[in-house]
């Protein structure tokens, strides 16, 4: 537990760095769109500070899409946290800023995973709502393209709903990486990496569509099948991306300004070409043990761990050798419920004492 | 500097653009039904063309063989298997073997084929051809029982050709329906009744086909229209999906028999969805199937005991599916549920003189109501019948929710049904045991 006096210092320091935090936490803005929608009971607010000018423009043009983007982002964050439960980096929110979603200042594997799964989440949700007919510009719209929409943008037509979600996600998310935002530095490498990982997330969703079939026939036989393509669930996407995360590829920027593979130091094997669905990163990951303002890590202090477990959630690993404190926790629950004639159920209140191990 | 310029573009591996579920299912079902409609139209004209009996027999045999090949994945294999069943059964029938022996032989052959497919990891192939073989065995058994009555001295080629034509009738091979011998020849010998009547039949058929395809779309794509909010709703949708797939088959075949000039009823979905009792559900599920079991198995009374004959009927019904534990246990469950409900309602009807039996009361010609004191119109009987209507709907969910999509093409595991029924705490069985107990008390 951080002493109370440090909270003010941290808050003050965070205010000084709010400019750089905004860049890394724009997903938090996207995830808040539905909150703004619910709170004000009006159309989503497109002036949130985390959106880039291009994204704000798309937001105005496709206001009915923004709740889907928001829910897709939230689903992705949930799945991310589920995949990394018990790990030092667990996709958690920076508690002092009150923002939603992880923050990545460095171009690490974790940043790659986060961008990929968020992109996949938005694609998934847009595609799903397309199918349900909840988005106006999905399906066979005869509306002509407005003039202020750039010419190379995809305009919703009669395409497959997954295709539409894919294109919208690409346009809305990647536009940020292509803009010259005065708020941020011109980090070409990071921008290319983000675009690459965004694309990987979207491609994984498209490639893992599977046909689902139903049998028809005499008395439960299967004389005939009717089949249709089905999207993978976010759980499946999370699992696939987790695999990609474990096998992420290190890249750097070459002289021509392109991403270039680095030799894998472990195997000394040089990959000639990365798959389109591979995740890429440029920086080594920190150990995520200590709170570090510069690298944007939260640390594992105060995390619940499992004593005696050898996995990532074990106290030895999660607490980084600092040890843990054991606390007793009283949980009240109803027990020994009996039916009394007539006519009610009477329960006793039991106090269950459990032990919780928390990292020092 | 343009940041996008340096981005290395990877080639998009575009999957083929796919329509949505409803579009794909509509296209697939219409394509299959179109092929069958071609057969129906062709044989509607063939039956009116004056050709010799010998030529007609050959036309039927070859067309049927090609139909089996056309609709199966393994063409030659399916044709050989189909004709093997025919040749063995006809040979045994001509040699005056009993219909029961031929039925048992066919079922043994079916189970042997199933084990063969299982051995070579081709269970999906067996399931794809099982429906065809089931109806085939039913027709062969019907011929066998008919031949039992025939006098061997008067057996002629004309009679034999009738049997062959009955067995090898291409429009009814894939989805059925099963027609009894009398029904088939009544249909075949029906004269051309004029363009007006034929147009009426065609319109009825097209309406049935439209309904069939609609139900197939709902069966496959119900998730597009409705997302379940609870586990019970999901189970109900699974059961509905299974039933609507069945209705698709029944209404399609209903259209075929209408086009060919028969008035045989295959199934009425409304009578099943809003059934008076589970007994009615069981008999209405597939009327031709019910006719076969009732006339060829139950009414022949192989055993003296009615209970034994009922059990034997269910056993045959189950074994016509091969060794399918899921189907066996579902049929037994339906039999048990229907039996207990019938017993209870019969007792209830007699004890309180109410018109609440499993079967509707027969209305006598000399009065407007039945013999019971509380007829259908009284409030008390109406409420009780409404309760049993709702219960029948629940039984439909209970017995149908085990037919999930994940194993339907390869066969269900042994404990699949029990696990799913366990999630409902075996409620239909509990209700049935309760009914049996109550019928002893009141």
Q: What brief labels describe this structure?
A:
heterodimer, A: alpha+beta, 2 domains, 3-stranded mixed β-sheet, 3-stranded antiparallel β-sheet, globular, B: 442 residues, mainly alpha, 17 helices, 0% strand, disordered N terminus, lipoprotein (chain A), extracellular matrix (chain A), glycoprotein (chain A), Wnt (chain A), neurogenesis (chain A)
Q: Can you walk me through this structure?
A:
The complex is a heterodimer of chains A (360) and B (442). Helices cover 39% and strands 16% of the residues of chain A. Chain A is of the alpha+beta class. In chain A, a hairpin with a 3-residue loop joins strand 7 and strand 8. Chain A is globular, with a radius of gyration of 24 Å. The N terminus of chain A is likely disordered. Among the domains of chain B are: 123 residues, no CATH class; 166 residues, no CATH class. Chain B is built from 17 helices and no strands. The radius of gyration of chain B is 25 Å and the shape is globular.
Number of strands of chain A: 8
Distance between the termini of chain B: 92 Å
| Helix and strand run of chain B | HHHHHHHHHHHHHHHHH
Rg of chain A computed from alpha carbons, rounded to a whole number of angstroms: 24 Å
Q: Secondary-structure element sequence of chain A?
A: HHHHHHHHHEEHEEEEHEE
- The number of helical elements of chain A comes to 11
Helix content of chain B: 55-70%
| pLDDT < 50 stretches of chain B | 1-19
Largest sheet of chain B: none
Outline of chain B, from the CA principal axes? globular
Q: Estimate the mean pLDDT confidence of chain B.
A: 86
Short précis:
Chain A is an alpha+beta fold and 360 residues long. Helix content of chain A is 39%, strand content 16%. At the A-B interface, helix 8, helix 9, strand 1 and strand 2 of A face helix 1, helix 5, helix 8 and helix 9 of B.
């Amino acid at each position: 537990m951080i002493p109370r006096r440090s909270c003010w210092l941290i808050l003050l320091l965070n205010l000084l760095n709010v400019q750089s935090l905004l860049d890394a936490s724009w997903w938090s803005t996207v995830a808040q769109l539905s909150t703004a929608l619910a709170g004000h009971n009006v159309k989503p607010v497109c002036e949130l500070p985390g959106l880039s000018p291009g994204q704000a423009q798309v937001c105005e043009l496709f206001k009915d899409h923004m709740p889907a983007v928001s829910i897709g982002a939230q689903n992705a964050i949930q799945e991310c946290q589920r995949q990394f439960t018990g790990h030092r980096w667990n996709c958690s929110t920076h508690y002092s800023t009150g923002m939603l979603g992880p923050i990545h200042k460095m171009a690490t594997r974790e940043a790659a995973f986060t961008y990929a799964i968020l992109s996949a989440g938005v694609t998934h949700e847009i595609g799903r709502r397309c199918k349900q007919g909840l988005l106006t510009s999905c399906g066979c719209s005869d509306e002509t393209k407005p003039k202020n929409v750039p010419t190379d943008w995809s305009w919703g037509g009669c395409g497959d709903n997954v295709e539409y979600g894919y294109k919208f996600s690409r346009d809305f998310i990647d536009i940020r990486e292509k803009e010259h935002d005065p708020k941020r530095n011109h980090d070409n490498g990071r921008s290319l990496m983000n675009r690459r990982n965004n694309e990987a997330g979207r491609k994984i969703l498209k490639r893992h569509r599977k046909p689902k079939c139903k049998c028809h026939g005499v008395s439960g036989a299967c004389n005939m099948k009717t089949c249709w393509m089905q999207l993978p669930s976010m759980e499946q996407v999370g699992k696939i991306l987790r695999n990609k995360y474990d096998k992420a590829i290190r890249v750097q920027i070459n002289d021509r300004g392109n991403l270039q593979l680095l030799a894998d130091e472990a195997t000394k094997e040089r990959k000639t070409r990365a798959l389109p669905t591979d995740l890429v990163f440029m920086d080594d990951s920190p150990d995520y043990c200590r709170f570090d303002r510069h690298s944007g890590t939260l640390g594992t202090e105060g995390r619940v761990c499992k004593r005696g477990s050898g996995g990532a959630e074990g106290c030895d690993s999660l607490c980084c050798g600092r040890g843990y404190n054991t606390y007793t926790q009283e949980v009240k629950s109803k027990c020994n419920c009996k039916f009394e004639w007539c006519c009610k159920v009477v329960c006793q209140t039991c106090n269950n004492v459990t032990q919780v191990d928390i990292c020092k | 500097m343009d940041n996008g310029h340096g981005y290395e573009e990877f080639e998009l591996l575009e999957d083929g653009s796919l329509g949505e579920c409803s579009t794909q299912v509509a296209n697939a079902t219409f394509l299959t039904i179109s092929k069958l409609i071609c057969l129906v139209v062709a044989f509607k004209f063939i039956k009116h063309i004056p050709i010799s009996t010998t030529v007609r027999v050959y036309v039927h045999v070859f067309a049927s063989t090609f139909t089996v090949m056309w609709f199966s994945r393994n063409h030659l294999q399916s044709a050989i298997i189909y004709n093997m069943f025919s040749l063995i059964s006809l040979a045994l029938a001509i040699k005056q073997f009993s219909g029961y022996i031929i039925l048992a032989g066919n079922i043994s052959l079916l189970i042997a084929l199933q084990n063969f497919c299982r051995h070579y990891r081709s269970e999906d192939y067996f399931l794809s051809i099982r429906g065809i073989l089931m109806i085939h065995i039913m027709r062969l058994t019907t011929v066998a029982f008919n031949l039992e009555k025939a006098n061997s001295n008067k057996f002629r080629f004309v009679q034999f050709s009738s049997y062959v034509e009955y067995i090898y009738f291409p429009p009814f091979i894939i989805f059925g329906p099963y027609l009894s011998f009398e029904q088939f020849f009544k249909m075949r010998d029906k004269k051309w009744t004029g363009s007006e009547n034929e147009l009426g039949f065609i319109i009825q058929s097209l309406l049935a086909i439209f309904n069939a395809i609609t139900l197939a779309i709902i069966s496959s794509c119900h998730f597009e229209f409705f997302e379940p909010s609870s586990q019970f709703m999901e189970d109900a949708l699974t059961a509905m999906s299974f039933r609507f797939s069945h209705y698709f088959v029944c209404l399609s075949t209903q259209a075929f028999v209408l086009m060919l000039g028969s008035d045989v009823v295959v199934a009425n979905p409304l009578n099943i969805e809003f059934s008076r009792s589970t007994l009615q559900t069981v008999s209405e599920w597939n009327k031709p199937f019910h006719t076969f079991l009732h006339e060829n198995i139950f009414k022949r009374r192989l055993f003296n005991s009615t209970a034994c004959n009922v059990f034997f009927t269910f056993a045959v019904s189950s074994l016509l599916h091969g060794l399918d534990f899921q189907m066996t246990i579902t049929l037994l469950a339906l039999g048990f549920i229907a039996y207990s409900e019938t017993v209870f309602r019969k007792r209830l009807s007699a004890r309180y003189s109410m018109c609440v039996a499993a079967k509707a009361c027969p209305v006598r010609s000399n009065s407007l109501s039945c013999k019971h004191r509380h007829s259908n119109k009284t409030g008390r009987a109406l409420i009780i019948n409404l309760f049993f209507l709702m219960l029948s709907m629940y039984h439909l969910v209970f017995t149908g929710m085990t037919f999930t999509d994940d194993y339907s093409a390869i066969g269900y595991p042994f404990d699949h049904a029990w696990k799913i029924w366990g999630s409902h705490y075996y409620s239909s069985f509990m209700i049935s045991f309760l009914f049996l107990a109550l019928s002893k008390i009141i």
